[in-house]
Each structure stands twice: as structure tokens, then as C-alpha cells.
Amino acid sequence: MAPIRPARSEHDVLIIGGGVAGLTLALHVAGTRRVTLVRPASDDQGASRWAQGGIAAVLSPQDDFDAHVADTLVAGDGLCDERAVRFTVEQGPAAIEWLLSLGVPFTRDESPSASYPYHLTREGGHGARRIIHAEDATGRAVLDTLKSHVEAHPAIAIRDDLVAIGLMGDAQQRCRGARCVDERGQLQELLAGDTVLATGGASGLYRHTTSPHPASGEGMMMAAELGAELMNLEFQQFHPTCLYDPGGPPFLISEAVRGEGGRLYSTDGHRFMLERDERAELAPRDIVARAIDAEMQRTGSPHVWLDVTHLGDAAIRSHFPTIHAHCLHRGLDITRAPIPVVPAAHYSCGGVATDLDGSSSVPHLYAIGEVACTGLHGANRMASNSLLECLVYARSCAGKLALRAPAATSSPTAGTVGTKRVEAHRVEQWRTAMRDIMSRHVAIVRRDAGLEAASRELSELSREIQAAVESAAPDTALASLWHAVRLARLTVMAARQRRESRGLHFNPDCPPHDQTGLAPRPSRLHLADLPD
């Protein structure tokens, strides 16, 4: 049988991923270069849309850059790159002004004493009100606005019929585009002068997440396959408050609910955050998530309570209309009863190591948004710095790409294409097994024995999946799983190598980092570091 020859096309700038980061980049690059945006329909349900709280930026006259920088450094628990933090914070106001110019409907502040035209809320870790928002559905408002502008731009071609399953490199180890699968299951090769990953994080490695369609680190592993360095994979953030409803889809209860006065109680009525941290419910997410986890262990309950009833009906409906309506639809009136909540995988602080312009260690390959690790978040992301990062680094990456002449697309190295089909239910069984391993052993609290077990179990699972991958026909679900299981193994490796408890990596078998005497260091891994 003759080998299958994929269809091949040439492109200038190829962007993979259509959340806030990808859309922002597309709009900025399209002024100087032609853009192809691979944006499957599932991107509309990715992490960007579910970002309820808002965007952190220094906008109030009572706030300043140094304060935002200091709060971010504290939340990052000693592992932030201060240069990246200051760069991000100082670029924030301009990014917000750009969104306003596009028509994003941020919530206005109508009070006579308002010092800024738009309402600013406060969230965990922030010492000031600096979160601009569109009611409690900021991600949706920003995404929809950006999407409408992208769809109308003549220099942006949207490919919503493709899903990227891997990148292509040439003999000089440069990125030369991506291999994609179309709606008919046919392989297509998109050669590109420059390729940008905006594919999201890796919360999908876990059983419970805050997004209905979480990414599983596919972009991180695509980059790693070309030799890109991955950094800080062990720092997976669990949002403290996801709606507890085992029979329904995931739904995030925004950090802003606590920012506006929401109180956490155990199921036996104890307001536990008062004794855990002087900031109580406004402590950084890693502290709140561990406290909730400990209370669930103490009481044997699958959730705790988040109560806002004391704020009053009018305030709740005004500040949290989306959350109120969603909970009401699921049989819970939050104006009258507390919300059952549980921590869930939410954000990856690690990813593809990049510079301030999104450059990876692979020539012509860039990464922006959650797939990247810029050093901004350190060991723990502070609330609402994520959409800020998407905007700032998309804009800086666009500036770098605008200075580059369109590159000639040299031929990538040839790959092999299998023909065997793997049954969908088998792929789903493997994915469930991977998520169970990660949720049992590599979640909010890790221990040495659990990490060792996870390493062993994931290695065995990986070998089973690899045997199927080597002869399989192009398949998006199987490709995603193959990326995910290898990233899970690298995440466990990073966690085992960090012999301290810091930020989101909490291991009772390791001392707190301030007791080790060791200098803070990021973790750095390559795909080649994985044992066979």
C-alpha cells in the first residue's frame, strides 16, 4: 500500500488556539503579516470563557505598579521572575485601554465618589481593588468582543475545521508549522514561517476541573517534541471554589465572591479561614485550597460551604448575576442558601519556558497564555493575573513578529502515518485512568510514596498507549491523550525533584522552603528527560 501523503499548504504566521491570547495576537499581528488561526469550535468553551472574576491592572489613582508587583511576588512564594512581573504589571493599563477601544463592556462604577470610570473589585492576594470586570462573566465578554473583530479582519484566516496534533521541525531544529487533522479525519500539514502556541494549560490531567473542556497540556508537549524546555510543571493551581454538584458540569465560583465578602464554613458550621491566615478568605489560592482540603478531610465531607447570604439579595444579583442565574438553574438560590464548593484543577503555572516576547528555545516557535511559563506566576498564580498575562504577552509577541520578515518555509522532516483505528472507548478508558492517578497522587497535597506510585503507574499506562499510537491513524483524541500522559509523567518528575514545599507544591515529606536554606530555583525539563 502506498504511503498516505497529507495535504500541504503554506502560511505566514500560524496561531494554534483561539482563546483570549490567540485572538489578541491575531489582531495585533494582522496589521503587518497574514495570519492563519487554527481555532476549533471547542475553543469557545475553553478556559478564557470561564474566567469570571476579571483582569488585574493598576487603574485606580489609589493604586500603583509597585503595589501590584509586590502582591504578585508574595503570591508566587519566592519563585517569580521579578523582571517578568514588573514587565507584565507595567503593560497592564495599555492592554485594558486597548480592550476598551474594541468595545469590551466592562462594568461601570456609577457611584459619585468613583475615582475610575469602571468598577474595580478585589480578589485574593491583592492589597487593593484593581480587578476590572464585566459583571461576573469577564472572560465571555472579552472573548466574544475579540472574536467578532477577528472574524471581520481581512488578513486573518480562521480554520475552525482543523485540530493541531503536532508540530513540524526541519533539519536545523526550527519549527516549520503544524500537523492537523480535519473533520474527515484526514491529516493536513500547515507549513509556516512562524508558529505560535496559544493552546491553554493542563488542568485536564485531573479528574475535577473548573472548565467543561479543559486542555491537557497538548501544546506543551507539542513544543517539547521539538526540543523546547518546559518549566515549573509541578505548580498546578487548584481553584478553591468550584460548585460541588457531582451530577452536573463543572462551574467556577469566582474569586470575586470572596473578594466581595463571601465566607467559607465547614459543613459543621466552623468559619475556618479566620484561624488559617490573617487574610482569611482573601488569602492566596494555594492557602485557601489546602485549608478547604483539610476541612473536608476533618469532617469527612465532600465539600465546604461558601456563604454570601449576608450580602443581601440586591448586592448578590448586582455583583454576581451569572453565578446567581447558573446556581438557580441548578436548584440553588445563593441569596438564601450557602454554596457547596470544592477545589478543582484550574490553572497551570508551568509550561513552555519563554522570554518576554513569547520566544521559546526552538527557533520560530512561540508560546503565549497558559501554555507558556513566563516567570510571572512563580509557585502560585495570583487571582486575575492570567487574562492580564494573555493580553500583555500576546501584544509583546506581536511586536516581535512584526519585526521579522516572513520566513521561507523549508521542508520539515518527514513523519510516518499509521492506518490502524483505536476504539474511542479505549482512549477514554486510558484518559480516565490517567486522571485518576493524577488526582490521587499529584493534587493539592502530595507525598513521596504517592508520587512514586504515580510515576510507576503512569509509566505502565504510557507504554500501553504508545503501543497503540505507533500504528494508529491520525486521531485527535488519541493524540491529545498521548501528549497528556507524557506531560503527566514530566509533572510527576518535577514534583519528585522539588525537595521543598513551596506555593502550589505542598509535600508534607519535604520541609517548607524557608527551612531548607536553598536558593529558589525553577524546575526545567525536556522530553528527553523521561525514562523509556
TrEMBL record:
Q: What does this protein do?
A: Catalyzes the oxidation of L-aspartate to iminoaspartate.
Q: Which gene encodes it?
A: nadB
Q: What is this protein called?
A: L-aspartate oxidase
Names of required cofactors? FAD
Pathway field of the UniProt record reads: Cofactor biosynthesis; NAD(+) biosynthesis; iminoaspartate from L-aspartate (oxidase route): step 1/1
Q: Identify the domain of life.
A: Bacteria
Give TM regions.
12-31
Q: Where in the cell is it found?
A: Cytoplasm
User: Which species?
Assistant: Billgrantia sulfidoxydans
This entry's Gene Ontology molecular function terms read:
L-aspartate oxidase activity
Pfam families under this entry? Answer: FAD_binding_2, Succ_DH_flav_C
Catalytic reaction list: L-aspartate + O2 = iminosuccinate + H2O2
Task: Quote the EC number.
Answer: 1.4.3.16
Is Aminoacyl-tRNA synthetase one of the keywords?
Answer: no
Query: What keywords are annotated for this sequence in UniProt?
Result: FAD, Flavoprotein, Membrane, Oxidoreductase, Pyridine nucleotide biosynthesis, Transmembrane, Transmembrane helix
Q: Where is the FAD-dependent oxidoreductase 2 FAD-binding domain?
A: 12-387
Q: Which SUPFAM superfamilies match?
A: FAD/NAD(P)-binding domain, Succinate dehydrogenase/fumarate reductase flavoprotein C-terminal domain, Succinate dehydrogenase/fumarate reductase flavoprotein, catalytic domain
Q: Which NCBIfam families match?
A: nadB (TIGR00551)
Q: Where is the Fumarate reductase/succinate dehydrogenase flavoprotein-like C-terminal domain?
A: 431-514
Give positions of region: Disordered: 503-532
What does the sequence similarity comment in the record state about its family?
Belongs to the FAD-dependent oxidoreductase 2 family. NadB subfamily.
